[in-house]
Amino acid sequence: MKKHLLIFGKVQNVGFRYWLYAKAIKKNINGWVKNKNTGEVEALLIGNEEDVNEIIKQCGKGPHSSNVTHIKSHDYKKNYSKKSFDILSSN
């Protein structure tokens, strides 16, 4: 399963990318996470359906210091073959 996420709210400068990185590594999820210049956190999650859905659910709460207002999620159609989870530079 491949899901592309945009996470809205107070999600930057609260450790959200590092929190998500730790969750993804623990669940053996591939993909990436990065801050967007517009204030959201963007992520790609690739893994088995149960684990990806669990992480999306956890993203609704986020780390303790965050305040997630909503998440936009859709299927990711492009190929992505990297076998790691990375924190990317902002765009």
List keywords for this structure.
single chain; 91 residues; alpha+beta; 5-stranded mixed sheet
Describe this structure in words.
The protein is built from 2 helices and 5 strands, in the order E-H-E-E-H-E-E. The chain has 91 residues and is an alpha+beta fold. A hairpin with a 5-residue loop joins strand 2 (30-35) and strand 3 (41-46). The longest helix is centred in the first third of the chain and has 11 residues, at 16-26. The protein is globular and about 30 Å long. The termini are far apart. 29% of the residues are buried.
Query: Please, how many helices?
Result: 2
Tertiary shape: globular
Strand composition percent: 35-45%
Could you give the distance between the termini? 25 Å
